[in-house]
UniProtKB/TrEMBL annotation, chain A:
<keyword id="KW-0812">Transmembrane</keyword>
<feature type="domain" description="ABC transmembrane type-1">
    <location>
        <begin position="86"/>
        <end position="275"/>
    </location>
</feature>
<dbReference type="GO" id="GO:0055085">
    <property type="term" value="P:transmembrane transport"/>
</dbReference>
<keyword id="KW-0472">Membrane</keyword>
<protein>
    <submittedName>
        <fullName>Binding-protein-dependent transport system inner membrane protein</fullName>
    </submittedName>
</protein>
<keyword id="KW-1003">Cell membrane</keyword>
<feature type="transmembrane region" description="Helical">
    <location>
        <begin position="90"/>
        <end position="113"/>
    </location>
</feature>
<dbReference type="GO" id="GO:0005886">
    <property type="term" value="C:plasma membrane"/>
</dbReference>
<dbReference type="Pfam" id="PF00528">
    <property type="entry name" value="BPD_transp_1"/>
</dbReference>
Automatic annotation (TrEMBL), chain B:
<dbReference type="InterPro" id="IPR013563">
    <property type="entry name" value="Oligopep_ABC_C"/>
</dbReference>
<dbReference type="InterPro" id="IPR003593">
    <property type="entry name" value="AAA+_ATPase"/>
</dbReference>
<dbReference type="GO" id="GO:0005886">
    <property type="term" value="C:plasma membrane"/>
</dbReference>
<comment type="similarity">
    <text>Belongs to the ABC transporter superfamily.</text>
</comment>
<feature type="domain" description="ABC transporter">
    <location>
        <begin position="272"/>
        <end position="523"/>
    </location>
</feature>
<keyword id="KW-0067">ATP-binding</keyword>
<dbReference type="InterPro" id="IPR050319">
    <property type="entry name" value="ABC_transp_ATP-bind"/>
</dbReference>
<dbReference type="Pfam" id="PF00005">
    <property type="entry name" value="ABC_tran"/>
</dbReference>
<dbReference type="InterPro" id="IPR027417">
    <property type="entry name" value="P-loop_NTPase"/>
</dbReference>
Amino acid sequence: MSMDPTIPGAPPERGFLRLALANRSFLIGCAITLAVAGLALLSFFWTPYDITHLTVADRLKGLSTNHPLGTDHLGRDILSMIMIGARNSIAVAIVAVLIGMGIGVPLGAWAAARGGLVDEVLMRFNDLVFAFPALLSAIMITAIFGPGALNAIIAIGIFNVPVFARVARAGALSIWPREFILAARAAGKSRTLITIEHILPNITALLLVQGTIQFALGILAEAGLSYLGLGAQPPMPSWGRMLFEAQTRMIVAPHLALFPGLAIVVTVLGLNLLGDGLRDLLDPRLRRER
Amino acid sequence: MSLLSIENLSLDIGGTPILKDIDLQIAPGEVLGLVGESGSGKSMTALTVMQLLPEAARARGRVTFDGIDILAAPEDAMCRLRGDDLGMVFQEPMTALNPVKPIGEQVAEGIRWHTGVSRADAEARARAILDRVGLPEAKFPLSRYPHELSGGQRQRVVIAIACALKPKLLIADEPTTALDVVLQAQILDLLRDLVGENRMGLLLISHDLAVVAEMADRVTILRHGAVMESGPTGAVLSARRHPYTRQLAEASTHVPARPRDPSAKPSGPPLLEVRDLTRDYPGRRTGLFQHEKPFRAVDGVSFSLPAGHTAALVGRSGCGKSTLARMILALDRPTAGSVSLMGETLEGKSEAQLRGARRNMQVVFQDPYGSFNPRHRVERLVAEPLHLFDKRPDAGERRERVAQALDDVGLAAADMDKYPHEFSGGQRQRISIARAIITRPKLIVADEPVSALDVSIRAQILDLFADLNQRLGLTYLFITHDLTVARAITDEVMVMDEGRIVERGPTSDVLRHPTTPAAQALVGAAPDLEQALARRLSAERSGSPL
């Protein structure tokens, strides 16, 4: 993730790196997120075992040096499945965040720039989307258009749109009355140009923090959908479906549920820590209080 | 015995020295003026007395208040002192009150906490003190919220909170800087009365020598955290023995040299013409489709400005002067009336059609900190209006023009690669002027351009305005509540009140002989250093307090 370390109202920060190194939740969050992303990337080139290769003789093995996290009911290596599952989870959540940002931020910025009727209509529509429980509607969408990773991405992405629209609008509204915006208007710049040149760079921090939160929620939502069989389809492993498959064998082989569950918890925790840390680093008010 | 005595106080915050060997004394019933420019350590001195310093602060020396050693006092002893024997009033009345609590509760809170009286008794006492500060029950019930009050009224509430328990010492940190001159005079009167009634000591922190000359018995002048001079106000400020005192006093009454023949009447068609300009704001929503009666911010204003002329638009806060300025700059649409610049009307034109007019009029704002995007370099900030030219200058030409504009305002061309935070307030205001003149406009609208600046910087910026008026033939419309600015730099004054221009004429005439009540109120309330000093001196010579 590239990021611009400056914050609205404050000059570009030179000591950002020093502050970042002193912020524990940012460091831990970064480390976890990078580790998960690293595992996912590694899975493209190498996994301990080929998961399309079923070895029924090795089924439901416990933890061993051959299979550090054991094997499932078809004898597939759990570690390999979690690595490939990470790639799926991350891809779905990232694309969903990008969809949310790509549509939500321009809508929110537009609402803030125009005000009046445009703002009113957009925000009421936003409320409408908010009124539906996100996961329930995602289930509906995937049920209508058929299960699969792509539809999961679209379903989760749609529900990220109003979140980003609202955050972008609130951030933009706080920048619009500032004098440098008036000065830009006196210099004849159009609302669109002002939004691009002055508003968006000043709300990047806000959007970035919201992005990490939505990313974590996206991973949870993807796990939920694939638990219900509406996410990525077999043979592509996914953390949610691994949980589902482990459910009936909980007594015999609890490790089947433990590791994918842990993978979800740790990833979400890492992203939340990262988001917390980023917020502390980028919010000048909180920083001063430290 | 003195009420507050500070001896050899030194303070550093995180290793940076802030105060060096400060000495000052306040006796009961005495007003001490603490004067200095921003960063001189005035507020830090006050916060040391309150023991509200930041974590990393280390204070050495002796601070004795009413026999108590403040620097050694434990936190709970300080909690008992603060708000009881030690009151404090802050600069910004808009943020000093809790927005979600009614004013009565905010005043009663401290009374209950310190005296342990019942809620009803505390409210009765809150009522009494609010009455005393000029917020009578009939008009201002205890259940009012801060947002229902104006700035001056809020400052009265803040003073009521600070004075509810008749403190022995009140610390007022720039209590009137955020208020217009009429409110300032009222608040200063109130503070003076409270000092007289309760034999309260008052530590009045201000950057404004005229305010201090009117209020303070003695004055201490701070610079870079050290005391430059102190003594009886009249003697110190009129003898001006210390070079810094002289510099401050001269800067606060500075009038830029404007070698112009005031009798030379500008000829030709007016540069700016405003006719019957009116702006209504919709009233508060009272139902789904119902609104209160619209509020008329600007009401049928007409005037014209000849080229090369310098006019001031003065008035109290909320009189509509900024709204008028925005309509002139085509940043806000008038409800009725018209503005024309060089014969071209501005209403109903699209942004694209306005480009020509925008090239010829630019704006300078009050706040040198808020008027720049903190993420851009000076080159980009100053070059922003170049966008208005149909043929955009290329990168080389752009740098050349920015360099020229920076040179015009007394900055170096090399400054264009820096960020705004690398400059001081005065330098930023120069950058803001450079941005305004880069398109070589005819008209500059300046909205309180020097009121956020220190006196010495302010004198320099006024000189710059006068110089640019000379060199570039600029026409200015200064919007200000500060009559000294109007007096220093403008040919003509328009007094605005409740959305209308009520009086208009040559600056010296209007300021010397105001005819309308609104103008008289403004002129009467404006603190005047020379007059205040004359009164002070005669009182000090005869040995009687003012």
